[in-house]
Design goal:
The chain has 3 helices and 11 strands. It is globular. By secondary structure, the protein is of the alpha+beta class. 18% of the residues lie in helices and 38% in strands. 26% of the residues are buried.
Length: 164
Amino acid sequence: MTMQHVKRFGHRSTAPQEPRMSKITDIDLAFARAVTVGAVVRSLAGEGWSLQEPLGISYVVNHDDLFDWQSTSPDQAAEVLSLLDSPANVHHDVGVCIYHSTAETGGQLLLHAGRSRCSFIPTIDRRSLSRAPALTDMAWYLNTLVPPLLALELTSYGAKDLTD
């Protein structure tokens, strides 16, 4: 598998006098039992989500709390899912970027150790509310993420969109 290191969290330089605001936006999902990355991705595919995003396929196995994201070509999807779902990685957080090409948005899907919880973070062209662009259109994300995951025994979700 040919992989490239991808810097996903670069910050734009700002002048020292400009205030910096940070945004925390995520949807936390809980399942009745452990799920695999492959099962989640297959379920979301019916709503238009895909592993193929503008950078190809981006993924992470978080062995060291550094979240060192990798990128590879779309033809490596099966190998990436196999790596992430490997029994050797069940005790590590793993993630993939998912993308909705029709809506031109996506983000990071992180499955936490044990695989009964995951989080979605809209990091790729985040959809905002038309009358309040600083706020995330959480309803759109929830409507495209939650229904297909019910088949995987999704039991609850929580959403937050905070700016400090």
